[in-house]
C-alpha cells in the first residue's frame, strides 16, 4: 500500500512539473501560457489540473480531441489562430469552462453540437471570424451564457429561434456585420438581454417594435445609415438608459420615437444630417443627464425651447458644428442642474452672460469659436482673468476685430484694465492694491506691452550721492 502511494505521488509530481518548451506554467494557479510560440497543434502533456490555458497567437488549425484530458479548465484562449471550424465534441469534457475565446480565427461554420459539454460557459468570444450565419440550435448547449461577442463577422440575417437557448444572455455584440434590418424575431428569446451592440452595420431604418426585449438598458446603433425611425421603434424599451444614434443620416431629431424612452440617461445624436433642432425636441426625457450633438456639419439653428423636455440635464455637448453661429436666448437658463457645457468649435461669435446657469455650472468650454471681442464679451474676459472663480473655463482667443485677432481674451481684459488705471498699473505688491486718490504710485516695474519685462541694460542708471 505504501509503495502504491509513493508511486502515485511520484507520477503526480511529474505531471505538475511538466511544461512544454517555450511555455510559461504556474502550478500554483494552475495555469499555462504558450502565446506566440508558432504552435501548429495543441500540446497534450499539460498538467491535467490546469484551470487557465492561453494558446493565443499561434498557428493552430484544428482542436479535435485536443482537450479531452483537461477537464478542469475554466478559461481557454484560442484567439489569433487558424481555426476554420468547431466540430462536435471538441469541448465535451470542459463542463467547468467559464470563458472561451475564439476571436481572430477563420471560423466559417459550426457543426451540430459544437459547444456540447459547455454547460457552465459564461463568456464566448467569436469576434473577427468569417461566420455567414448561425444555424438554429448551435447555441442550445450554452444555458449559462451571459456574454456573446459576434462582431466583425459576415452575418446578415438571423432567423427566429437562433438564440432560443440563451435565456440568461446579458450582452450581445453584433457590430461590424452586414445587417440591413434589425433581426427582430431572433431577439424574441433574449428575455434577459441588457446590452445590445448593432454598430457599424448597414441598417437604414428602424421598424415598429424593432427591439422586442424590454430588459434592454443600453443600445448602440451608431455608424449605420439610419435615416428614419418609426415612432414605435422603441416602444418596448421601458428600461433603456443609454442610446447611441451617432454617425447615421438622420435629418431631424426623432422626437416621437425618443419620447417613449422615459428612463433614458444618455443620448448621442452626433454626426448626423440634422439642420435644426425644434421646440421640445426632447420632450419626455425628464431623466436625461447627458446629451451629445457634435460634428453635425448641417446644424444651423437651435430653438430656444429645444431642451425644455430635459430639465434634469447635467452634461451638454454641442460642439464642432461650424454652421451654428449663435445660441438663442433662454436655451440654457432653464437647465438648473447643468454642470458641464461644451460648445467648442462651433461658429459662435458671441455668448451672452445671461445664458449661463451660474447656480450649477462648473465647467464651460468655448474654445475654437470665432469670437468677436467687444463689450458684449467683457463679462467673459473678466471671468477668465479672475482667480477666485470655481468655474473651469479654458482661455479663449479673439477672432475679430483684426487688431485683436489671436489675442487671448484674458489678456484683452488686463489690457483694458491697464488703460483705465494708467501709470498706477500694476499695483505696488507691498502697498495698497489701488493708487491713492490723486497720487499715482511710482512704477516699480518697467513693463512692455503684454507683460514683457525690459532687460536691466535698458533701464537708465541714476547716480547716487553719498551723505
TrEMBL record:
Tell me where the signal peptide lies: 1-17
Q: Where is the LRRCT domain?
A: 369-424
Q: Which UniProt keywords apply?
A: Leucine-rich repeat, Repeat, Signal
Instruction: Please give the InterPro entries that the UniProt record associates with this protein.
Output: Cys-rich_flank_reg_C, Leu-rich_rpt, Leu-rich_rpt_typical-subtyp, LRR_dom_sf, LRR_TM_domain-containing
Give the matching SMART domains.
LRR_TYP, LRRCT
Q: Name one GO cellular component term.
A: plasma membrane
Q: Which PANTHER family match?
A: ANTIGEN BSP, PUTATIVE-RELATED, CHAOPTIN-RELATED
Q: Which named protein is this?
A: Leucine-rich repeat neuronal protein 2-like
What is the species of this protein?
Answer: Homarus americanus
- Upper taxonomic classification of the species? Eukaryota, Metazoa, Ecdysozoa, Arthropoda, Crustacea
Q: Which gene encodes it?
A: LRRN2-L
Amino acid at each position: 500500500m505504501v509503495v502504491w502511494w509513493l508511486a502515485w505521488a511520484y507520477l503526480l509530481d511529474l505531471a505538475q512539473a511538466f511544461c512544454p518548451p517555450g511555455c510559461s506554467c504556474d502550478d500554483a494557479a494552475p495555469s499555462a501560457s504558450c502565446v506566440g510560440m508558432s504552435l501548429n497543434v495543441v500540446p497534450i502533456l499539460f498538467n491535467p489540473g490546469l484551470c487557465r490555458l492561453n494558446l493565443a497567437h499561434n498557428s493552430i488549425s484544428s482542436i479535435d480531441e485536443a482537450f479531452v484530458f483537461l477537464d478542469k479548465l475554466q478559461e481557454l484562449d484560442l484567439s489569433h489562430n487558424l481555426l476554420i471550424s468547431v466540430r462536435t465534441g471538441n469541448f465535451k469534457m470542459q463542463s467547468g469552462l467559464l470563458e472561451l475565446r475564439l476571436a481572430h480565427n477563420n471560423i466559417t461554420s459550426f457543426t451540430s453540437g459544437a459547444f456540447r459539454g459547455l454547460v457552465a460557459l459564461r463568456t464566448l468570444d467569436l469576434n473577427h471570424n468569417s461566420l455567414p450565419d448561425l444555424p438554429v440550435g448551435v447555441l442550445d448547449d450554452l444555458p449559462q451564457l451571459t456574454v456573446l461577442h459576434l462582431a466583425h463577422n459576415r452575418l446578415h440575417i438571423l432567423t427566429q429561434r437562433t438564440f432560443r437557448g440563451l435565456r440568461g444572455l446579458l450582452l450581445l455584440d453584433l457590430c461590424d456585420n452586414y445587417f440591413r434590418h434589425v433581426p427582430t424575431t431572433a431577439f424574441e428569446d433574449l428575455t434577459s438581454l441588457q446590452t445590445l451592440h448593432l454598430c457599424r452595420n448597414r441598417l437604414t431604418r428602424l421598424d415598429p417594435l424593432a427591439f422586442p426585449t424590454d430588459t434592454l438598458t443600453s443600445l448602440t446603433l451608431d455608424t449605420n445609415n439610419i435615416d428614419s425611425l418609426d415612432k414605435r421603434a422603441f416602444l418596448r424599451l421601458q428600461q433603456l438608459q443609454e442610446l447611441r444614434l451617432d454617425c447615421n443620416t438622420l435629418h431631424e431629431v426623432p422626437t416621437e420615437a425618443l419620447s417613449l424612452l422615459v428612463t433614458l440617461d444618455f443620448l448621442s445624436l452626433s454626426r448626423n444630417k440634422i439642420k435644426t433642432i425644434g421646440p421640445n425636441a426632447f420632450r419626455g426625457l425628464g431623466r436625461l443627464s447627458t446629451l451629445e450633438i457634435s460634428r453635425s456639419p448641417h446644424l444651423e439653428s437651435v430653438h430656444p425651447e429645444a431642451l425644455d423636455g430635459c430639465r434634469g440635464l447635467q452634461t451638454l455637448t454641442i460642439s464642432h458644428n461650424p454652421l451654428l453661429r449663435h445660441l438663442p436666448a433662454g436655451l440654457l437658463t432653464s437647465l438648473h442642474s447643468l454642470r458641464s457645457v461644451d460648445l467648442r468649435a462651433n461658429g459662435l461669435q458671441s455668448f451672452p452672460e445671461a445664458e449661463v446657469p451660474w447656480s450649477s455650472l462648473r465647467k464651460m468650454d468655448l474654445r475654437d469659436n470665432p469670437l468677436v471681442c467687444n463689450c458684449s464679451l467683457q463679462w467673459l474676459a473678466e471671468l477668465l482673468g479672475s482667480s477666485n472663480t470655481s468655474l473651469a473655463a479654458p482661455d479663449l482667443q479673439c477672432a475679430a476685430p483684426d487688431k485683436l485677432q489671436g489675442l487671448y481674451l484674458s489678456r484683452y481684459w488686463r489690457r483694458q484694465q491697464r488703460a483705465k488705471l494708467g501709470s498706477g498699473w500694476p499695483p505696488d505688491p507691498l502697498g495698497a492694491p489701488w493708487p491713492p486718490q490723486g497720487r499715482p504710485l511710482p512704477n516699480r516695474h518697467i513693463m512692455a506691452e503684454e507683460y514683457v519685462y525690459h532687460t536691466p541694460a535698458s533701464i537708465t542708471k541714476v547716480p547716487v550721492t553719498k551723505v
